[in-house]
Write a structure and sequence with these properties.
The complex is a heterodimer of chains A (about 350) and B (about 220). Chain A has about 350 residues and is of the alpha+beta class. Chain A has nine helices and twelve strands. Chain A is globular and about 45 Å long. Chain B has one domain: Four Helix Bundle (Hemerythrin (Met), subunit A) (Up-down Bundle), CATH 1.20.120. Chain B is globular and about 50 Å long. The chains are: A alpha+beta (about 350), B mainly alpha (about 220).
């Protein structure tokens, strides 16, 4: 794999602006007094976000309760700090924006629907069904699936197919390590993920106007899934995932458009053939299976050449050029050597 | 009754202005550094709400004539031009937000978007129609154009259909809003088709003239 473990660009995680400081920086910027990004304003901390703390109540996160095992794990074990490609050296999008501006259509199609409609979302107990071409088929409690691994912090850019982007400090486990332990056999070429179906908790799953054929499905080629950048996330900003961000378990694949990063996963299925995926099924000319971030291939309805980095300070969005593979080309371009990325978008 | 009719116009004028004032105030707060009120993507929020109000005003403008007959309230007639101008006003704001905030005055990008993205093409056409109608909405223009004024202003039906198409083409997965406004425009246009054919209406065809008849 092409992951760089050390490079001259590496900045200690303590130098990244934490959320609180970022907020104050925004008010500075509002007055036109910018501070250069990356300037250290706080004493060193263990992680980007600072100390892991149960800062928010379950209610704040729209959860019926936080999984106790996960809270204990967060508080009892040190997080593996992000370095190299695992650490985007950019200003973080504040928690308040990460948790109130969401595309999670199970809750509704407006950006604020997930955070306002998710209430007492039940994530404990939670289990994941493992099926298909692997040795360890069966239902497994989330706790047992995650327990063997150290939680890692990953600060990734998230590029939505709608041409906006954020920078988010996730907490998760490398997907590849989990998949390996499930013993995929020689026929396993793809891995499919399925979201929970529960119209009582997900109002849009009961809507007559939704054109999505629930459950939401996503998939990766096995080598993509095994790549060290791919993680299963359980938290963000030092705490467990809010319901609206895909609690309790979601995929994060930072070089692909956000819709690939499926939320509230209940099934992992190893397959011989390429799985059908929700958006590609809905509109194949607009959304492909690969969905790698690519400024050269426009969405038929809008350009993908640039993105609005959120949050916007003031009224005028900061338009930043979109990078191939969302800036992770050095790490992942090799996965697609020889492929026509215009055809396999 | 006469007093109510006189009050109606300023009342509708003020109500129609409220959304612009409210969102303008929110935009002002964001611009001076009061974050969070329009969410992390304020430009997108403003584009969405201005678009929504454009369609609402257009639907209301199209509803004036049918309502005037159905409710037998000739006083409504006095509101039609004003509401039509409001539809143009919100569409203009929608276009300016797109041009100034989202495209950041990049004219080349505007050209590409209008040519290459069908939903922008139809939205822009709808805007151009409303622009022409707004420019010819005044009494002098009505007098100069005479009979042609009426045919010209029937283009508003096309503008309404294009606006709905624009809305449908933006939908990613949930068609509820597009269906609602689409159904309203369909009903309002169907009403006209049906009544244009009905002999009863033809008998009173002067009422259908968009031009006020001063003398009997």
């Amino acid at each position: 794999m092409l992951i760089r473990t050390k490079s001259s660009l590496d900045i200690p995680s303590s130098e990244i602006t934490p959320e609180a400081v970022y907020h104050s920086r925004r008010s500075f910027m509002g007055l036109g007094v910018g501070i250069p990004a990356g300037v250290s304003l706080l004493s060193p901390a263990a992680t980007v976000y600072g100390q892991v703390s149960a800062a928010r109540s379950a209610t704040d996160l729209n959860l019926a309760g936080k999984p106790r095992w996960l809270e204990q794990k967060l508080q009892g074990e040190p997080l593996v700090a992000a370095t190299g490609s695992f650490l985007a050296k950019e200003s973080l999008t504040p928690f308040e924006d990460v948790s109130t501006y969401n595309n999670f259509y199970e809750f509704g199609t407006d950006k604020t629907d997930p955070s306002t409609r998710a209430k007492n979302f039940s994530v404990d107990p939670w289990s994941v069904e493992v099926t298909g071409e692997c040795g360890k088929r069966g239902k497994i409690a989330l706790e047992d699936l995650i327990k063997p691994y150290a939680l890692e912090e990953r600060v990734y850019r998230l590029r939505c197919v709608e041409a906006w982007s954020m920078v988010i400090p996730w907490i998760g486990v490398p997907l590849g390590e989990i998949l390996k332990k499930l013993e995929p056999n020689a026929d396993a070429k793809f891995v499919e993920f399925v979201t929970l179906v529960d119209p009582k908790q997900f109002p849009e799953q009961g809507s007559r106007f939704a054109t999505i054929d629930w459950p939401y499905r996503e998939g990766l080629r096995l080598d993509e899934a095994m790549h060290p950048l791919s993680i299963l996330a359980l938290g963000l900003y030092g705490d467990v995932l809010p319901a609206q961000n895909g609690a309790p378990l979601r995929l994060v694949v930072p070089w692909k458009y956000g819709f690939k990063s499926i939320k509230s996963i209940v099934q992992i299925n190893f397959r011989k053939d390429m799985p059908r995926t929700t958006w590609s099924d809905l509109q194949p000319s607009e959304y492909g299976f690969y969905a790698n971030v690519n400024p050269a291939v426009d969405h038929p309805r809008w350009s993908q050449a640039a993105e609005r980095r959120l949050p916007t300070a003031g009224l005028i969005p900061s338009r930043v050029p979109t990078l191939p593979f969302n800036g992770y080309a050095d790490d992942v371009a090799g996965l697609y050597a020889g492929m026509d990325l215009r055809r396999f978008y | 009754m006469v007093a109510t009719a006189k009050l109606l116009k300023p009342l509708v004028f003020s109500l129609s202005l409220l959304p612009a004032l409210w969102w303008g105030w929110q935009a002002y707060l964001v611009a001076i550094g009061d974050f969070g009120r329009l969410g992390p993507d304020p430009a997108k929020t403003l584009a969405l709400v201005s678009g929504e109000w454009s369609i609402r005003m257009l639907v209301i403008a199209l509803a004036v004539t049918p309502l005037r007959f159905l409710l037998n309230m000739p006083a409504l007639w006095r509101l039609r031009r004003m509401i039509g101008l409001y539809a143009f006003f919100y569409t203009l704001l929608h276009f300016l937000i797109f041009l100034l905030l989202l495209l950041q005055l990049n004219w080349a990008d505007l050209g590409v978007e209008i040519v290459e993205r069908p939903y922008i093409t139809v939205g822009f056409l709808s805007f151009l129609i409303l622009l022409v109608l707004a420019a010819t909405s005044f009494d002098t223009a009505q007098r100069h154009l005479g009979r042609r004024w009426k045919s010209l202003h029937r283009l508003v039906y096309i503008a309404g259909m294009l606006a709905i198409l624009h809305l449908v083409w933006i939908v990613r997965s949930d068609f509820a809003d597009a269906l609602l406004y689409g159904a309203l425009v369909f009903v309002l246009l169907a009403y006209r088709v049906l009544h244009a054919k009905s002999s009863v209406v033809r008998q009173f065809s002067p009422r259908w003239s968009s031009f006020p008849r001063k003398k009997k």
